[in-house]
Each structure stands twice: as structure tokens, then as C-alpha cells.
């Protein structure tokens, strides 16, 4: 860890060596910070990734706030002389502190915090930063996502929890988390994982019941007695008072003796009140056996357990709204009702009644291959060649008229195998769906990979949503989104995409010289310049770092890798 972390200051070490062995400063021999904290009890030293100076507050940075008064020389390079005035920051400057957009209008591209700017005004690389709520004016954005960015989930906003960073379980109240309150009772499995087990609740000392512990699976026995102890003999399992909520009880003790059933663990089968347990938890033999009847606690009429009794339906719990008291339509979010929101777009026809064709309208922006149409969707009425709903270029060449509205000439499918320059698309042609770089339709690698024209058909391996390289193996070359794949895995044509970290295997435009530095390292040893990137206008010092002090711009300043005095 330390050996790898110290590699960044080798240029400084080499420059400092003479005929005699040089004495290294403490900040040159310590363990490099993994999170930007330094000095004090942490024992960490700063690096160019966070900034070489360690402030009096124990944070790494590169401005006078960090390198000036109180700078901890034992944990960072404070420079002997006071730093010269910093280059003024303003709109369009690379974020120095992780904030973006807003009043400062800082951008995230090239920052150490991540290339995407969230609507909350913070740089990062997570779905919350790069997904639906990303602000493209201040960073790189990824494709749309249904993963929550603020921790809220469920049918209200249609967002899911897995991958959000808040926790994978969506609680009954509509918030993501990973504790019992989120993953236990009421957890919405349609919007996350509900994998909470009872392992933590198994008794480890033989006591049960009042302390919330269960005997099921304990080494003392599976039954919890009336006195709150685990065991496996009749004294625990067969006597009146055995607690079924906290273990296993003999069958005869489960029969209701007071007409109540279900939640209390009692069954109506064999009771004097009737064999059916109603949705409200009462034993009987009339309406108790119809919709909402609880088959786990008695006898029910056929299919009665399939009708929703709480208003939830569809893929959420497999319940149908047909015949429920809430309405016959099951909405896209899994709620029963009879309003337009329930019966139109996204209505789940397998779990109730839907307005004609409403269930085929796209609710997530995807169309075509999945059988969904864009006509009437909130994304736009046109279905693009790539299968996305929209209302701009989605309506042009390649637009799929079978799944939405298209411009009058959009059904311009090639009839002779030629494509591209003549405006013809291969999507849907008899020759193949890919338009090669030479302007011919086909389906093999010669047509669908290198040089494939994405605007006139389908392409294999070419990014269609700006993601590339290490993210999904797609290339940016020929994508129309920029020919460079950034270190974060997004297509573009800026210095942040084509410069330092550009993924050559997924790009055709990576810079090979005059590459702007993104982390302040520079000079002949690393082949990076301070010019043209986030450190534009700064000097490349003899130690191989960009800056504006006399140490950087004076004696030893590396000409050709930034300005020099």
C-alpha cells in the first residue's frame, strides 16, 4: 500500500538527489491518504490526487487555504514561501471541492470527485450523479435510469433501490435502506430486495417471546412456551399458551377458541365459528370464505386468495384487482383503482381490467423489441431505430412506425441494399439491419462493427447511450457521441474524454501528444501538460506538478509543459 502510494512523488525525489544521500521530508515517506484526510491522528500524507498541501484542519488541497497558514508540513508539501495568489475560479472552472452547477457553475469534467454533476450540485460517478438527474451542462451524463437518486422509492415515483447507495430494500413508507424497518414487514419487493431473514432473531439463550426472540432453529427446541422458554417436549409445544409467533406449536393449540385468526397465529379449521379466516381476521363460514380469505389459517373458496385486499397488485405481489373493493385496474406501480392513472398507460392487464391498448404504452422509455409503443408515452411519440422513445431525432431515419409516430419520410428503408449517403436505413431491410462504412446493408461484423453507421441502422459494439469501455465494452468510434471514451466510461470529444485516462481500446481519437493533465502531474516523465485542461495557464515545476508559485514557474520550470516565467 505504502509503496504504491509513494510512487507519485518519485520525480520530486529524483530532482532532490545529489552526490550525497538526500534527507526525505516526512510527507515524502508517509502513507498516502485514501480519502483526502491528513495529518493529526490519521497519519496520512497528501498526494496530487487530493492536493499536495495538508491544511490545519487535516484536509488535503492545493489552494492557499490548504498551503498557507497552519499547513502541516509533516503531512504535505507546504512550500517554503507563501503561495502566490490563486488563479481566480469562476463559471466553467473545474470543481476544486466537489460542488458543481448552482451559483458557482463549476464543472465536474476533470475533477478528482467524478465527471457527472447531480441536480443537488455535487460531482461523482454513481447513478445518483450520472443517471436521470444528472445536469449535462456541468459534467458528463450517462443513460436514463430508474434507480433512485434521493433515496425515495416505490409506486409514487417508480424508482428502485438496488444500486442507489442508500440500501437495497424499499420500505412500506417508500424509502430505501437495509435495516429491519426497510427489509421487513411492508417491504416493497417490486422496488427492491426484501431478503431480510430471521437469523438475528433466533434465541441464543433459550428465552423467547417477550424479548422478540424465536425458538425456530434454536438449539433448545423449536417451541416457545407460555412462560417464554424454548423447548421441544409437550410441556413447550402442546400446552395451552404455546406462542406460535415465536416458534412451532402442536396443531391442536393453533385452533382458534375465540373466533380470532391470522395475525395471532390461530387457524379457523376445526373451530366452532367456521373454517374460513376472513381478511379482517375473523373465523366464519359465509363471506369469510370469499375475497381476502386467508388460506394459511383455514379453508377458502377457489381463487379467493388472488384478489387484492390491500390495494396492491400485479408484479408487486401477484394479486388481481378484478373484484376488489379498490377498483378493477392495476396500475404500473402496482395499485388497484379505476382512474385513468390506473387503467391507461402501464396498466397491467394480467392483473385486472385495462383500457384498450393502454397496457402497451411504454412507461420506461424503451420501445420496439419489448412490444411497447411510444404513442402516448411521457417520453415522446416516436420510437427510434435503437428502441428509445422521444420526439427529436427519434422521429427521423430508422424510426419504427409500428411502435409510434414517425416523420413522413422516416420509413425510408433500403430496398436495394445501399444505405447512408443516399439517406436510406437498413433497419427493417431484407439485406440486414447494419449499414457498413461503405454504405451497404448486412448483418456480419463487416457491416455491424468498425465503421458501422449508427444513424442508418443497428451496430454491434458501438455505444448508443454514451456508455463505453470499462462500463460495457462498447466503443465510441462512429457513435456520433464523440470518438473518445473517458476514464469514467462515457463518450465525448473534450479534453476530459480524449486526454489523460482516455480508453484507447474504445476510442479512435485519444490524444497522443500535448495531453492535458487531470490530476496536476506534468512534465517529460509522465508526458502530460498543464495547458489545455483544468490546470490551464499554470506552470509545470521541476518536481512534476502544475502550479502558479515561484517554485513552479521559476528555476526548473519545464518549458513545453505549461507556461514559465
From TrEMBL:
Record's signal peptide: 1-16
PROSITE patterns: CHIT_BIND_I_2
Pfam families for this protein: Chitin_bind_1
Sequence intervals crossing the membrane: none
Gene3D superfamilies: Endochitinase-like (3.30.60.10)
Keyword presence, Hydrolase: yes
Matching InterPro entries: Chitin-bd_1 (IPR001002), Endochitinase-like_sf (IPR036861)
Top-level taxon of origin: Eukaryota
Cofactor annotation: Co(2+)
Annotated coiled-coil segments of the chain: none
Protein name listed in UniProt: Keratin-associated 5-4
Organism: Fusarium beomiforme
Amino acid at each position: 500500500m505504502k509503496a504504491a502510494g509513494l510512487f507519485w512523488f518519485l520525480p520530486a525525489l529524483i530532482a532532490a538527489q545529489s552526490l550525497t544521500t538526500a534527507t526525505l521530508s516526512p510527507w515524502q515517506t508517509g502513507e498516502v491518504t485514501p480519502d483526502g484526510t491528513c495529518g493529526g491522528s490519521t497519519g496520512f500524507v497528501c498526494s496530487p490526487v487530493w492536493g499536495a498541501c495538508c491544511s490545519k484542519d487535516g484536509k488535503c488541497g492545493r489552494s492557499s487555504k490548504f498551503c498557507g497558514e497552519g499547513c502541516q508540513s509533516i503531512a504535505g508539501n507546504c512550500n517554503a514561501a507563501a503561495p502566490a495568489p490563486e488563479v481566480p475560479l469562476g463559471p466553467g472552472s473545474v470543481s476544486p471541492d466537489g460542488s458543481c452547477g448552482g451559483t458557482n457553475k463549476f464543472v465536474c469534467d476533470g475533477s478528482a470527485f467524478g465527471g457527472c454533476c447531480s441536480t443537488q450540485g455535487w460531482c461523482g460517478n454513481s447513478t445518483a450523479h450520472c443517471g436521470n438527474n444528472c445536469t449535462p451542462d456541468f459534467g458528463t451524463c450517462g443513460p436514463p435510469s430508474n434507480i433512485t437518486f434521493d433515496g425515495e422509492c416505490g409506486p409514487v415515483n417508480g424508482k428502485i433501490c438496488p444500486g442507489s447507495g442508500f440500501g437495497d430494500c424499499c420500505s412500506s413508507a417508500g424509502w430505501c435502506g437495509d435495516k429491519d424497518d426497510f427489509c421487513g414487514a411492508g417491504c416493497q419487493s417490486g422496488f427492491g430486495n426484501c431478503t431480510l431473514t430471521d437469523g438475528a432473531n433466533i434465541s441464543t439463550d433459550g428465552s423467547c417471546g417477550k424479548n422478540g426472540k424465536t425458538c425456530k432453529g434454536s438449539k433448545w427446541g423449536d417451541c416457545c412456551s407460555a412462560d417464554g422458554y424454548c423447548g421441544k417436549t409437550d410441556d413447550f409445544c402442546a400446552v395451552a399458551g404455546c406462542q406460535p409467533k415465536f416458534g412451532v406449536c402442536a396443531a391442536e393449540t393453533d385452533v382458534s377458541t375465540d373466533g380470532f385468526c391470522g395475525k395471532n397465529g390461530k387457524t379457523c379449521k376445526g373451530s366452532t365459528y367456521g373454517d374460513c379466516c376472513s381478511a379482517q381476521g375473523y373465523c366464519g363460514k359465509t363471506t369469510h370464505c370469499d375475497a381476502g380469505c386467508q388460506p394459511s389459517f383455514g379453508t377458502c373458496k377457489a381463487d379467493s386468495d388472488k384478489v387484492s385486499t390491500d390495494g396492491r397488485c400485479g408484479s408487486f405481489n401477484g394479486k388481481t384487482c378484478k373484484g376488489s373493493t379498490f377498483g378493477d385496474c392495476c396500475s404500473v406501480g402496482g395499485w388497484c383503482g379505476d382512474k385513468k392513472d390506473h387503467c391507461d398507460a402501464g396498466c397491467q392487464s394480467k392483473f385486472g381490467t385495462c383500457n384498450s391498448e393502454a397496457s402497451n404504452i411504454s412507461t420506461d422509455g424503451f420501445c420496439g423489441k419489448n412490444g411497447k409503443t411510444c404513442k402516448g408515452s411521457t417520453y415522446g411519440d416516436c420510437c427510434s431505430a435503437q428502441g428509445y422513445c422521444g420526439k427529436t431525432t427519434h422521429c427521423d431515419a430508422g424510426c419504427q412506425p409500428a411502435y409510434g409516430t414517425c416523420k413522413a419520410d422516416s420509413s425510408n428503408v433500403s430496398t436495394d441494399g445501399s444505405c447512408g449517403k443516399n439517406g436510406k436505413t437498413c433497419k427493417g431491410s431484407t439485406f440486414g439491419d447494419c449499414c457498413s462504412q461503405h454504405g451497404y446493408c448486412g448483418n456480419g461484423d463487416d457491416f455491424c462493427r468498425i465503421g458501422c453507421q449508427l444513424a442508418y441502422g443497428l451496430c454491434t459494439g458501438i455505444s448508443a447511450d454514451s456508455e463505453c469501455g470499462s462500463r460495457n465494452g462498447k466503443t465510441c468510434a462512429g457513435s456520433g457521441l464523440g470518438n473518445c471514451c473517458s476514464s469514467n466510461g462515457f463518450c465525448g470529444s473534450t479534453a476530459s474524454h480524449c486526454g489523460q485516462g482516455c480508453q484507447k481500446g474504445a476510442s479512435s481519437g485519444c490524444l497522443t501528444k500535448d495531453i492535458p493533465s487531470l490530476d496536476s502531474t506534468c512534465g517529460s516523465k509522465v508526458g502530460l501538460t498543464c495547458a489545455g485542461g483544468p490546470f490551464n495557464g499554470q506552470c509545470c515545476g521541476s518536481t512534476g506538478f502544475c502550479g502558479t508559485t515561484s517554485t513552479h514557474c521559476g528555476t526548473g520550470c519545464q518549458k513545453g509543459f505549461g507556461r514559465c516565467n
